[in-house]
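Recall the central idea of this unit: under ordinary conditions, the amino acid sequence of a chain determines the structure it adopts. In this exercise we apply that idea directly, starting from the sequence alone.
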Amino acid sequence: MDMTPIQNAAFKAHISASDALKEELGRDDVSAIEVATVLATAYGEALALAVNTVNHSRSDLAAGINSIAQDACNQMCKRIAMTGAH
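Accordingly, the structure predicted from this sequence is:
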């Protein structure tokens, strides 16, 4: 799968999460940690919804969630490496 549409959608989700949190908190700015917390919460909820809507065995679901989580961690590590964060 081409990652560009996924990366574009992820960027839009980040901006939407930031804007929504600013509105909810009544502030003009929010921190990267606050936005990451919102996105992590949404990620957990999305995984729970995915599990509840798929009719597969528990091992298949666990394998799917594991794959998604590993992909997310890999993307995070790549991004940290690209920005030179330490």
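The CA atoms of residues 23 and 37 lie 16 Å apart.
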